[in-house]
Specification:
The structure holds two protein chains of two kinds. Chain A is built from five helices and eleven strands, in the order βαββαβββαβββββαα. Chain A has helices at residues 13-28, 60-66, 102-119, 194-198, 204-223; strands at 4-11, 35-41, 44-47, 70-72, 79-82, 86-92, 124-125, 133-137, 147-159, 162-170, 190-191. By secondary structure, chain B is mainly β. Chain B contains no helices and eight strands. In chain B, strands 1-8-6-3 form a four-stranded antiparallel β-sheet, with no helix packed on it. Chain B is globular. Classes of the chains: A alpha/beta, B mainly beta.
């Protein structure tokens, strides 16, 4: 199974959203088999289909002052924040070529993030019933509070079994305080980042390269039709 | 009369929530038009119309949950 990788760099959400739709159409028309978009976003808040506006905790005026746009989008899930210290992956995969199973695909995105974090010696896990990737943080180190912290968020849309939207992974700790502007995913949760856990500086671009590799390895190994499909 | 049935969506999925009807009762739909958007976990997905005709009756409103295999709506074929 081959897919094309597009690295958009630091981009605004709206541009990446329209590019997703362009590429979605190319996948739907059979011009591309599947694609993976990678990027970082300028600060933005997006509301998924299950979002309640009250989960944005500051006023519209204040958001305008901060220059943070808000978009209501067609992905699943509640509210989330994106900023330049995260890496974002938008897999535009034709699940008819893999397996037509929505929850399986969500679990696979979690596994990609768990595998990526393992490369940084971070032991991440699922939190059953709460889609996303989580890390047990034993102590409050000033960067995050102790307890189960969320490090990656997932929200996708599927049309005619082709996926879009995707997963964001927190890398730099500088972005974390912006999560205070919202009630992430509509839940009372704590968030963390790779930097917060490791205690040193991490470049987003280096994580992005590893993430692309992790996607390649995971989906080729699991799905290559020559190997008999998903094991 | 064609029944619009909530199809299989994966091994562990036995229900989904109706998030948006693209058409109202009485309206004409074309085959393959997006008819309804549904939500499960952190994913939304579409259900295209199985045929062209008039959307006769909707059995589940937005926000309601349906089980796999249940009839969501009836289309009277053109």
């Amino acid at each position: 199974m081959e897919f094309s990788i597009f690295d958009l760099g630091l981009t605004n959400f709206k541009d990446s959203w329209s590019l997703q739709r362009d590429i979605f159409n190319r996948v739907q028309n059979g011009k591309l088999s599947s694609a993976l978009l990678l990027c970082q976003h300028y600060p933005v808040i997006t509301l998924g289909r299950s979002a309640k506006k009250k989960n944005i905790l500051i006023s519209e005026e204040k958001l305008k002052y901060l220059g943070i746009p808000v978009y209501e989008i067609e992905r699943g899930g509640d509210v989330t924040y994106h900023g330049p210290g995260q890496v974002i992956a938008y897999p535009i995969f034709n699940l008819q070529l893999f397996k037509k199973d929505i929850h399986l695909f969500l679990r696979q995105l979690e596994e990609v993030a768990i595998n990526l974090l393992a490369e940084f010696k971070i032991e991440a896990r699922r939190n059953p019933g709460y889609t996303g990737v989580w890390v047990d943080c034993p102590k409050n180190n000033g960067n995050h509070r102790s307890g189960l912290n969320k490090i990656a968020s997932i929200g996708i849309a599927i049309r005619n079994w082709i996926t879009f939207h995707g997963i964001s992974i927190n890398i730099q700790k500088s972005d974390l305080e912006r999560f205070n502007l919202i009630k992430p995913c509509g839940l009372d949760i704590e968030v963390t980042s790779i930097e917060s856990i490791l205690g040193n500086t991490i470049e987003v671009t280096s994580v992005k390269e590893k993430l692309a590799q992790t996607f390649k390895t995971f989906f080729r190994m699991s799905f290559s039709p020559q190997q008999g499909g998903y094991a | 009369m064609t029944k619009v049935v909530l199809p299989e969506l994966g091994e562990s999925i036995n229900k989904a929530t109706i998030s948006y009807w693209y058409f109202q009762e009485g309206e004409k739909v074309q085959e393959k038009d997006d008819l309804v958007e549904l939500t499960t976990d952190k994913a939304t997905f579409n259900l295209p119309s199985p045929c062209s005709g008039a959307l006769r009756e909707i059995f589940f409103r937005e926000g309601e949950t349906a089980n796999i295999g249940e009839v969501l709506a009836i289309i009277e074929e053109a």
